[in-house]
Design goal:
alpha/beta; Molybdenum Cofactor Biosythetic Enzyme, Chain A; Molybdopterin biosynthesis moeA protein, domain 3; five-stranded mixed β-sheet; 27 strands; about 15% helix; binds ligand LQZAQKY5; binds molybdate ion; binds magnesium ion
Length: about 425
């Protein structure tokens, strides 16, 4: 077995989280391949190039109400006590429509979404009339342009609808459809291999002998990769056997990134550290965070980016959030690789280690109309508390200089799931 690149506590300085992230991102580039997908297949993809509206939206003046299209001047004096009676000359439903015009003293019955007849400049809702079909009594004077939806008031043809790097969610796909687009240019999906290491690991559901544990990191990572908009090309478990790991690395199927969990610390059998160190292209760092301190990042022969995350399950979740997700989103071509965060009220107090950024799994709540956060489990930030992830809505991110979070303090939280 090769020599362990030693990194005992207190010997190597801790690297700030931001510096470690910047080192990773400087070694990651967008995949750059573009595909075209139908809107129905666009959910979760990333827009490769900006797109513009092909039509005006709305594409014709139309009614916002079921009622009567009128000439506002005709009915300016209308009231409940003194209704103005108009002749109904057309009945307009939403759908294919012929040109219609109304003259003085005339109205058209009109439904929401139907084109406004020429000559009309306001719509009176049916509730403000006697609902007549040949003649209608208007009981309220409309404001000029009342309940008219104007051509192009939302978008004009040629206006930018979506910008490159956006994640395509329901609202953006709907906007593209409304703007006349049928398909969108999207970026290629990174293929990510997930490898959990540990001779103690057995498949979830398998009987547990002494010393064995159910592998939760594979599922955690595969879910996180998918949630980040990437594809899981392979998921496997390997024992702490350098030969097996070298074999897999040598014969692996092509992919765009590899995420290892476990075996990156300074233990005698920390196989990922031993084997990745042999390549000379993977750096090991002690990062100023809790959990998630031991980290590995680099490339394998052929240039595939490789992450070695510490094996404790909460450390895996935190490390993915802090380092892998931003890298995968960069490969995807996302404009925004940082997850939004909010400041909420700490419901109870807790401690945070000096000089390290703490990622505390939290559960959200509310008190006196304000959103609150409290540690998801009594065990707090214990990196082995996989069961506690069930109660976690996300993480509180406590800055390096803070050693005590007091009840009532504002804390930054990122909501993950
Ligand atoms: N002497 C030192 N020991 C340790 C240090 C240190 O600085 N000096 N750091 C500790 C910290 S912090 C962490 S985090 C862990 C990281 O360890 P490894 O990345 O080497 O991970 P393992 O040793 O393989 O496993 C750690 C822990 O996690 C459990 N595990 C591993 N894989 C899975 C899985 N797929 N599903 C569920 N649980 C898993 C494993 O059984 C261990 O309990 O090192 C500390 N030690
Ligand atoms: O820093 Mo370790 O990652 O505590 O769990
Ligand atoms: Mg270890």
């Amino acid at each position: 077995m090769s020599t362990i690149p030693a990194a005992p506590d207190g010997v190597e300085p801790l690297v700030p989280v931001q510096e470690h992230l910047e080192g990773i991102l400087s070694g990651i580039a967008p995949l750059g391949r573009v595909e075209h997908v139908r809107l129905a297949d666009a959910a979760g993809r990333t827009l490769a190039t900006s797109v513009d509206a092909l039509v005006d939206l709305p594409s014709f003046d139309n009614s916002a109400m079921d009622g009567y299209a009128v000439r506002q001047a005709d009915v300016a004096a209308a009231s409940t006590d003194h209704p103005v009676v108009l002749t109904v000359v057309a009945d307009l439903a939403a759908g294919p429509a012929a040109e219609v015009a109304i003259g003085p003293g005339e109205a058209a019955r009109i439904m929401t979404g139907a084109p406004i007849p020429s000559g009309a400049d306001a719509v009176v809702p049916v509730e403000r009339t006697d609902a007549g079909t040949t003649r209608v009594a208007i009981r309220q004077a409309p404001r000029p342009s009342q309940h008219l939806r104007r051509r192009g008031e939302d978008l004009h043809a040629g206006d930018r609808v979506l910008t490159a790097g956006m994640e395509l969610g329901a609202g953006r796909i709907a906007a593209a459809a409304a703007a006349g687009l049928a398909e969108l240019p999207v970026t290629a999906v990174p293929q990510v291999a997930v490898v959990a290491t540990g001779s103690e690991l057995v498949e979830p559901g398998a009987p547990l002998g002494r010393g064995l544990i159910h592998d939760s990191n594979s599922l955690l990572l595969a879910s996180l990769v998918a949630e980040a908009g990437c594809a899981v090309s392979e998921v496997l478990r390997l024992p702490d056997d350098p030969r097996r790991l070298r074999e897999w690395i040598g014969g692996r199927a092509p992919c765009d990134a590899i995420v290892f969990a476990g075996g990156v610390s300074v233990g005698a059998h920390d196989v990922v550290r031993h084997v990745l160190a042999e390549f000379g292209t993977v750096a090991f760092a002690r990062v100023a965070m809790q959990p998630g301190k031991p980290q590995a990042f680099g490339t394998l022969p052929g240039g595939t980016p490789v992450f070695g995350l510490p094996g404790n399950p909460v450390s895996v979740a935190v490390s993915f959030e802090a380092f892998v997700r931003p890298a995968l989103l960069t490969m995807l071509g996302r404009a925004q690789v940082r997850r939004p965060s909010w400041h909420v009220v700490a419901e109870v107090g807790w401690c945070s280690p000096a000089g390290r950024r703490q990622y505390m799994p939290i559960a959200l709540g509310s008190r006196d109309g304000r959103t609150t956060a409290r540690p998801a489990t009594a065990g707090g930030a214990g990196s082995h508390l996989a069961g506690g992830l069930a109660a976690a809505d996300g993480f509180a991110i406590v800055p390096e200089h803070v050693e005590v979070v007091a009840a009532g303090d504002l804390v930054e939280v990122a909501i993950l799931w």
